[in-house]
Amino acid sequence: MLRGFYTAASGMMAQQRHQEALSNNIANANTPGYKADQSSLRAFPELLIQKMGSTELPVTRGYRAMDSHPIGSLNTGVYVQEHTPNHSQGDIRETGITTDLAIVNGDLPDEEGGLFFTVQNAAGEERYTRNGNFTVDGAGFLTTSQGYYVLDEAGNPIQTNGMEFTVTGDGVLQTAGGDVPLGIAYTPDANELAKEGNGLFASEAELAPANGNFQIHQGHLERSNVDSLQSMTQMMETYRNFEMNQRVLRAYDESMGKAVSEIGRLG
């Protein structure tokens, strides 16, 4: 009976974590470049139940040999193994703001590949993002809305000297002071990136520069790829699954209460 408690409780915990991921997706439905998290539920390893016994051998003095017979397997619940970002392209929305940039994917050489802007976080480390909602700080550098420097192809902050600049389709920022290629990075497997806050992704190894296969649209933003309607439907389904596990847990609790009170009274 205690095993039933653990199985129902693990189901409740898994549905709660799934619900948290869905809530976070809906909260970021209007965040530019946000990539929706997908929950992967896995079953705990199955236990093989065997009946242990003995068999009497036909010998003169009699002898019993130990043996076992498989009964079947026993499941022990589920858990959320991981949250994996969905790196599919979001819709492109026109804003008309000069500092807004969007990466439009071309025919990428790898099915799981991804293209990203390269930025520098507060600790001076390179990070990657699809959120092109940029601005120009007081010193004339192109930054993210959180104040992180946007980097060029050489890994340096980009000096724009104001809001008057143009970005070509192949990612070259043109100002009165010259042309600066944006640091557009490519990874053959975007699932290897670690998701951080503020729309940033981290990589253990530095990503390679992108060689074409994309277009930069100035005055546009890539929208979140969250499907709000689908996420709301999944939230209701997750809530119902949580309630079902809760009812199972309550039933086990009532059975345990009867076992303790009634069997104890018979003794």
Automatic annotation (TrEMBL):
Residues 113-173 form the Flagellar hook protein FlgE/F/G-like D1 domain. Keywords: Bacterial flagellum, Cell projection, Cilium, Flagellum. Residues 218-260 form the Flagellar basal-body/hook protein C-terminal domain. The keyword Iron does not apply. Residues 5-35 form the Flagellar basal body rod protein N-terminal domain. It comes from the Bacteria. It is found in: Bacterial flagellum basal body. Belongs to the flagella basal body rod proteins family. This is Flagellar hook-basal body protein.
